[in-house]
Automatic annotation (TrEMBL), chain A:
It is a multi-pass membrane protein. The chain crosses the membrane at residues 6-28, 35-55, 70-90, 111-136. Keywords: Cell membrane, Membrane, Transmembrane, Transmembrane helix. The keyword Magnesium does not apply. Pfam families: MnhB. This is Na(+)/H(+) antiporter subunit B. Its main location: membrane. It is found in: Cell membrane. Belongs to the CPA3 antiporters (TC 2.A.63) subunit B family. Coiled coil: none annotated. One of its GO terms (cellular component) is plasma membrane.
TrEMBL record, chain B:
Residues 128-416 form the NADH:quinone oxidoreductase/Mrp antiporter transmembrane domain. Keywords: Cell membrane, Membrane, Transmembrane, Transmembrane helix. It comes from Desulforamulus ferrireducens. It is a multi-pass membrane protein. GO terms for cellular component: plasma membrane. Its main location: membrane. Belongs to the CPA3 antiporters (TC 2.A.63) subunit D family. This is Na+/H+ antiporter subunit D. The chain crosses the membrane at residues 6-22, 31-48, 68-95, 107-124, 130-150, 162-183, 203-228, 240-263, 269-291, 303-330, 336-355, 367-383, 403-426, 447-465. One of its GO terms (biological process) is ATP synthesis coupled electron transport. One of its GO terms (molecular function) is NADH dehydrogenase (ubiquinone) activity.
Length: 140, 493
């Protein structure tokens, strides 16, 4: 008999949304408050894990059609590439820079290249975490 | 600032990442990994010339100067080792093309080889002790994957042992760093050296030094080598060769760095301990090499003997002995890779590692046989070949400092090396040929080329000693005078 998990699935639909929002908040908060790429990536992974628990692997794969091994590799590539960007400007490897810009909606905002590095870290964490969970979760 | 310094780490890392993305394309995997290693070697030799002309090259990562940021330091010692690493890994990768098999190639073999090289080069380059730990972990995690890749029973059994030992020693490494940071308040190697010279190496610091000695002995298979013979025989030949040539040598490098740059104030305790451990390593490794009748085991024990011999050069701690140690270290990285590759080829042909089940291979495989013979002589230190000059200088150093027991053990170890490897040669290549060409288990197709390459390098290293003497002496000079390193890193002090 197939168990009826309509409550779990309905709650998941709401909660995943909150988790992912919180993950983005943590990711962006990293520069001035506790947070950052690693914890942001882990929280995204936990959101995805909840989806995998509530639904089956196949339907989540249809919803999120990416190969997480490649996500991890792309993440590491982004992190290294932000470091290599500084080679173009003849400054030491992994140098960072930042500036203040007037963006349309947010007003004056501080933008830093460290965020790009953090984006790479977050993608690497998500990719690694989900890959581990998927490889030990079944025969696949 | 010199951004080229980071390239020996960056090129293999980038190539590895790209290869993870293009997993299925084996042709791309082979070409890109080869190009990456070749260009790493090219950059390394260019940098070597720069170091020789203009002194130590440094790069403060992110523009944060030492001691506050991480600094990458390329002195002559590190540069030579990086160049040797490139040569050795080129040989192993070329060998892997025809031997590793497509199942392993499709499951990230080349990326992990490249990540391993990233970790090794990073360990050689870094000037920060915590970063050294991180680079060690990059190297070790790649080696965990490589040792278990393929998932045969023996590999899985040995990888558990290997991983447990290395996690233990990494934890101790971290503890040592924590103690050192609590005492000195800095992590930069040059700054650590200055701080320790200021307070003097008291009992507490010597204890920490011995903790580091334990850690790196575990990594380098100095006395604490019990995990090595099994682990290095388990993976396929190309992987075993890169392990035997690089992994223990990074531990040896760390020992050299720590005990010439930081903990050099109480040689009567630390270096004496190193000397005793080296002597015991040579004796026990030699006994192991003599008593076994399995090619893999004999080769693995030869790695252990060589580590003992190199460290005895450090233990004597004179300019002569350290120069000899560096010569021997470089010779041994190439020689051990070659020995693993040749041994693996023999096992591939006969289908067994047991010496008593094979004989007379010279009739069908003369090139393989004579290359093995040259390697044997080079490893034992016969004069025109590469192992000679290092051995002579280390032995001379031990005599000068009147460490006669170390002299005797060192010479005895050469004899044991010669006996154990010559035993392979005589049993495998001489005698009656009962394995005709069509009954052989495998071919040598494409496998001899990397061996020829490494043999040529090894012979050239022996005959062309004059050509590299100035580099090696500069490296030894840098190790014996930590002030040079400190001045290059901490420009203000």
């Amino acid at each position: 008999m197939k168990p009826n998990d309509v409550i779990l699935q309905t709650v998941t639909k709401v909660v995943t949304f909150i988790i992912l929002t919180f993950a983005v908040y943590l990711f962006l908060a990293g520069h001035h408050e506790p947070g950052g790429g690693f914890i942001g990536g882990l929280v995204i992974t936990s959101g995805l894990t909840l989806l995998y628990l509530a639904f089956d692997i196949e339907s989540v794969r249809q919803g999120v059609p990416v190969d997480f091994k490649i996500v991890a590799a792309v993440g590491v590539f982004i992190a290294v590439a932000t470091g290599m960007g500084s080679l173009l400007f003849d400054s030491p490897f992994l140098s960072q820079t930042y500036g203040y810009y007037n963006l349309p909606i947010f007003g004056e905002t501080e933008l830093a290249t460290a965020v790009l590095f953090d984006l790479g870290v977050a993608l690497a964490v998500v990719g690694t975490g989900v890959t581990i969970i998927l490889s030990i979760s079944g025969d696949a | 600032m010199n951004n080229l310094v980071i390239l020996p780490l960056l090129i293999p890392l980038l190539a590895g990442i790209i290869l993870v993305i293009f997993r299925q394309n084996i042709l791309l995997q082979r070409w890109l990994s080869m190009v990456a290693i070749l260009s790493t070697g090219g950059v390394a030799s260019y940098l070597l010339q720069m170091v020789s002309d203009y002194g130590i090259q440094t790069l403060a990562i992110g523009g944060w100067e030492a001691p506050f940021g991480i600094i990458f330091v390329l002195d002559m010692f590190a540069g030579l080792l990086i160049l040797t690493t490139s040569i050795v890994s080129l040989g192993c990768i070329l060998y892997a093309f025809n031997s590793i098999g497509s199942e392993r190639e499709q499951f990230y073999f080349y990326p992990f080889m490249l990540f391993l090289i990233t970790g090794v080069n990073g360990s050689f380059l870094t000037g920060d002790i915590f970063n050294l730990f991180v680079c060690f972990e990059v190297m070790l995690i790649s080696s965990y994957v490589l040792i278990s890749l393929g998932g045969t029973k023996v590999q899985l059994r040995q990888s558990i042992k290997y991983i447990v030992i290395n996690i233990m020693s990494s934890t101790m490494f971290l503890l040592g760093i924590a103690y050192l940071y609590a005492i000195t308040g800095t992590l930069n190697l040059a700054h650590l050296s200055v701080r320790i010279a200021e307070v003097g190496q008291e009992g507490m610091l010597t204890t920490v030094a011995i903790l580091f000695l334990t850690v790196f002995s575990l990594k380098a298979a100095l006395f604490l080598y019990f995990w090595l013979p099994g682990s290095y025989g388990a993976p396929p030949t190309a992987i075993g060769a890169i392990f035997g040539a690089l992994l223990t040598k990074v531990g040896v490098y760390a020992l050299f760095r720590m005990f010439t740059l930081i903990f050099y104030h109480q040689p009567e305790i630390t270096h004496m301990l190193l000397g005793m451990m080296a002597a015991i390593t040579m004796i026990l490794g030699g006994l192991g090499a003599i008593c076994h009748w399995d090619i893999r085991k004999i080769i693995a024990y030869n790695v252990i003997i060589a580590v003992g011999f190199i460290v005895s050069g450090l233990a004597v701690f004179t300019a002569t002995a350290v120069t000899g140690g560096i010569y021997y270290l470089i010779h041994d990285m190439i020689g051990k890779a070659l020995l693993f590759l040749l041994g693996g080829t023999i096992i591939g042909i006969t289908g067994t590692g047991k010496l008593k089940e094979m004989s007379g291979l010279i009739r069908n495989h003369p090139l393989l046989g004579w290359m093995f013979f040259i390697t044997v002589l080079a490893l034992a230190g016969i004069p025109p070949l590469s192992g000679f000059i290092g051995k002579v200088l280390v032995i001379k150093g031990t005599m000068e400092m009147e460490f006669y027991w170390l002299t005797v053990v060192g010479l005895l170890s050469s004899l044991m090396v010669l006996y154990s490897v010559m035993k392979i040669f005589i049993n495998v290549f001489w005698g009656e040929t009962y394995l005709s060409k069509d009954k052989e288990k495998g071919t040598t197709y494409g496998l001899l080329f990397p061996c020829v390459l490494l043999t040529t390098v090894s012979i050239a290293l022996g005959l062309g000693v004059e050509g590299i003497t100035c580099y090696i002496e500069q490296a030894a000079n840098g190790l014996m005078n930590p002030d040079i390193y400190i001045k290059a890193v901490l420009k203000s002090i």
